[in-house]
DNA sequence: GCGACAG
DNA sequence: ATCTTGTCGC
């Protein structure tokens, strides 16, 4: 076979952009889910909303997190990981893994084409089994709306899995003029702020930069994935932050690495 | 033209 | 993403 550009040619990127534009038409950027947030204060009286059938709405209980780790010896070997945590206790109640060879490289702005397929596979397996802990919400290691075309991995996964998703970035993706020094200045205005809204050149609010713990100087970047508002996403992230990285993503990250350590030399799916 | 660029 | 030592603090 000749040495042709198969992975990240401009033609490939154009095709990827068309897919992103097409999927983006299905994106929902406001709260649209069947559950509700748990009461912030343990209130004695329950005033939960009723759904159309006059029943109590379900409360958000099972929060998923996804991440992928790679084999240092062969960076094309990936371990996709899904964890589900019980929101109240932040304990892991489910995890699953999938080791595979990824042929698509990481290209900034097109992370989903590399990582979404393996993650969708793990999600679909759990859904097919009608597992009782199937997540009501998914936190994604990567951005959502904070993306050159407003459709990062969290949006991509949310639309394809039809799940509410929140994007959590550990580094800033420089889009719409946003840059690290600007974020740092904003956070340090008026003493030190816990979080700030990030607005791009277009005037749209794209994300929130927040420091979940007092000691962490470096912020995380929260953006909308699918079927959720930024305000709600922020509340949920705050509920799950034992450390700088929210627990669902942190656990997915930890367990993903651990899985690769403990399962050496297994031949991945061809 | 040059640099920047989630994971 | 991954490679890496020590170091500071509870």
UniProtKB/TrEMBL annotation:
Main location class: cytoplasm
Gene3D superfamilies: archaeoglobus fulgidus dsm 4304 superfamily
GO cellular component, one term: cytoplasm
Localization (cell): Cytoplasm
Any GO BP annotation: DNA repair
Domain of life: Eukaryota
Cited CDD domains: Endonuclease_V (cd06559)
MF-aspect GO terms: RNA endonuclease activity producing 5'-phosphomonoesters, hydrolytic mechanism; single-stranded RNA binding
InterPro entries linked: Endonuclease-V
Keywords from the named record: Cytoplasm, Endonuclease, Hydrolase, Nuclease
HAMAP family membership: Endonuclease_5
Name of the protein: Endonuclease V
UniProt organism field: Carnegiea gigantea
Lineage, highest ranks first: Eukaryota, Viridiplantae, Streptophyta, Embryophyta, Tracheophyta
């Amino acid at each position: 076979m000749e040495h042709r550009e198969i992975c990240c040619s401009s033609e490939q990127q154009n095709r990827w952009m068309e897919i992103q534009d097409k999927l983006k038409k299905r994106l929902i950027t406001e709260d649209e889910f069947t559950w509700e947030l748990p009461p912030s204060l343990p209130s004695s009286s329950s005033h939960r909303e009723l759904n159309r059938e006059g029943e109590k709405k379900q409360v958000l209980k099972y929060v998923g997190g996804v991440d992928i780790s790679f084999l240092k010896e062969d960076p094309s070997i990936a371990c996709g990981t899904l964890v589900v945590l019980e929101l109240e206790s932040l304990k892991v109640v489910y995890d699953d893994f999938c080791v595979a060879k990824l042929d698509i490289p990481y290209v900034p702005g097109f992370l989903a084409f590399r990582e979404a397929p393996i993650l969708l596979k793990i999600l679909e397996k759990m859904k097919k089994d009608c597992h009782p802990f199937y997540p009501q919400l998914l936190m994604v290691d990567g951005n959502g709306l904070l993306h050159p075309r407003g459709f990062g991995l969290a949006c991509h996964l949310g639309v394809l899995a039809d799940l509410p998703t929140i994007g959590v970035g550990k580094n800033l993706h420089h889009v719409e003029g946003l840059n690290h020094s600007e974020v740092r200045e904003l956070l340090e205005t008026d003493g030190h702020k816990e979080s700030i809204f990030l607005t791009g050149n277009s005037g749209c609010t794209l994300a929130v930069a927040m420091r979940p713990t007092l000691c962490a100087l470096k912020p995380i970047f929260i953006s909308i994935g699918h079927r959720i508002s930024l305000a709600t996403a922020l509340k949920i992230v705050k509920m799950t932050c034992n450390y700088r990285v929210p627990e669902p993503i942190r656990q997915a990250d930890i367990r993903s690495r651990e899985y690769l350590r403990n399962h050496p030399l297994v031949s991945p799916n061809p």
